[in-house]
Amino acid sequence: MTNTTPQTTTPRPGPTPTALLYAVIAGSLLTIVSVFLAWTWTAEFPGDLTYYGSPADIQYVTLAGAALTLLGALSALGVKGLGWLTPKGARKAVWLLALGTLAATWFTVIAITWVLGGVINLEPGAYVALVGSLVPALAAYKLPDDTRKAAPAKQLPSWAEILIIAASFALGLFVVTYGIDTDDKEPQLFVAYLLVVGFAAAALSKSGAMERLTTIVRNHRQVTLLSTAAAAIGFPFLQQSGDTYTLIAVNILIFATVALGLNVVVGLAGLLDLGYVAFLGVGAYAAALVSGSTASAFGIQLPFWAAVIVGALASLIFGVVIGAPTLRLRGDYLAIVTLGFGEIFRIAMGNLDGESGPDITNGPNGIPNIPHLELFGWNFGESHEVGGIVLGAYANYYFLMLLVMALVIVVFARAGNSRIGRAWVAIREDETAAEAMGINGFKVKLIAFALGATLAGLAGTVQAHVNSTVVPENYVFAGPVPPNSAFLLAAVILGGMGTIRGPILGAALLFLIPAKLAFLQDYQLLAFGIALILLMRFRPEGLIANKRAQLEYHDDTADQVPTDLATVKAGV
User: Fold this and answer.
1) What is d(CA 197, CA 543) in angstroms, rounded to the nearest whole number?
2) Given CB 3.0 to 4.6 Å as the disulfide criterion, which of 81, 94, 159, 399 pairs with 72?
């Protein structure tokens, strides 16, 4: 009698984690080697990738991604001295780094094929790069999940932690400067840069390295503050090829300052303002009218400090006048009213030309010829030599905007942590419950509206002198060039509502990306819409989460809200 029992087969074992890590290392090394080979035979592709042994800028981006992937794999293997890179586990970090390298490399090769008209234009180095970047991504995907709770970090000497902080800020300054300085004629380089930097930032977050660095930063707040100031001040000294990129940095600071003001209204108080850019325009027009422009209807020139006060007060008054009758509305109705105010401001500035209305703003032609600032004999329109280094004219405005932003950050931080700031949060979370606990919702919202308008007007006074002209079309709801209300709102949401670093990061990204990717102008709104949808799906709290909001979200706080409101009640 034959045995009919089915025979079970033992599944073939897959590759071990060690073997997969060695595959990641091998692929990373192969990618590094490919960088020193020619990827195409013709110099018609931007950057000239025809040389052997002399990588182009876009190849250096691939090199950086491959080197980071290699470090992550070596850390996962337990190489001594690299364990601090992945305290929460290496698998996700290595995979993200490999994906970033893969995306940047394949994008570059596909761009070469597209621009030059076919794969026939590729040299062997391009194929080596394609294979070399694909292997680590596939191998890292197969790695088992090793996510763990980060063990307490070994206490380092104070000098070592300070050195880590200084090195981190120096590296950050280099990365930011490299991105801003990329040639506008090489949009492919900036896209590859964004891919590698974006995946690297996500990898640092998943590995726990960012959390460990944050802990070190908190232990040395004064050193961190000095390092931040040194990195910010050092940027113009690295711009010796001209003022072009310094001007971009100035506009980013203006955009970020206005976004912080909107963050008071949207992020803290929860008021949806779709016409916020009008307050920037009020400050700019007010400063332009009293700063000695030849087209000014008033014909006066006040000192800059007085023009700043005029611009800030004008925006404050407009904020109170607009907010007083409208802040009793909520939600969509308030958004519609603020949107209408923004459009009314733009149309009114275009009609005050002496024909449709009083001759105040010169109509659609705006107010041109706004003179450069001059403080204590220092002319902001001239280049100056500092320590043997020539700083262009826009470097003067850059340093001024650093001071303005520092002031706005202090105001935002102090207001957000005050009793009125906690009242804003209570109104944002549940206005009905807040009012039931004794908070005057109308007064609290009006204060937020007025403060946000004042901060925007403060930035507008500097913007008027930077651009040397003010026209109504600069202050629209949506347009291809920031700042406008849609971009400002997107910056706050993208960066993280209620935080300080979030809107600054969001503003920098939303200003820099359109400036570098000019060929996407016709599709910018589509791209932003897709980006916001993806952000709401995968990271609804924004790129930088609000710690207070995270705690409220993760804890069961059904009984906590009344307690928080009671804390606020005594001071409001």
Assistant:
1) 14
2) 94
